[in-house]
Amino acid sequence: MGRLDGKVILVAGATGMAADAAKRFAAEGARVFVTARTEANCRELVERIAATVGEAAFLAADLREEPDVAAVVAAVRERFGRIDGLYHVAGGSGRRFGDGPLHEATLDGWNETFRLNLTTQFLVARDVVSAMLGQEPSAAAGRGSLLLMSSVLGFHPAPRPFPTHAYAAAKAAVGGLVRATAAYYAPDGIRVNGVLPSLVTTPMSARAAEDAATLDYAARRQPLAGGFMAPEDVTGAAVYLLSDESRFVTGQLLRVDGGWSVSDAWGVRGDR
Length: 272
What we know:
With 272 residues, this protein is of the alpha/beta class. Helices cover 41% and strands 13% of the residues.
């Protein structure tokens, strides 16, 4: 038996950490529903899962928009009957919108970065929790488990290589959302946790992964990894937090960071 046997898990995102997790969830026995903005990415991932490890479906959606989110949650319930887990990975850098150091950031950059990294998680989590509240709880694990995506940058900054202050603020706010909702919904048998990765090899980090200075920084700040981590290094934590193994774990922010949060950040400001 797999660690997620019989569960229906909604994965928000279709590349990088989300894609790796969706494949692993299916291999662990879950039925997986994938949603992301780019239909081609969703389709490719779901076809790969269906051809190799398990059952999956998808609906492309812009998770910043309420009607799209409502359609996704309705589609999951129509296809699989319920939702046992949410893994919300979808998000991204706000640099292209105008994120950056506070004194240089634009209001558009702030707003769009928050929409991409916080509003999406709020909207999806809200509709998933609404669905879970109407479900019968299982004997072992309650009504369901939500796993939201924060970042070590929200709590352990890297001022020189990553001066994206709206992104850090949005990811820190995810931590507050996790704690508040975990406390509120615990009596309903709904768990909410967060995962805080550091530098992981994904499409979002592709540019940083090609920069010699950033690679050197990652090797020193993530000593357990000796550089960038791989998506599967985060997926293991996601499997645990969405499985019945963690049925009494809620309101936690798990740092999967290769030692980032406990390592010396020497030189992060350079000559400043």
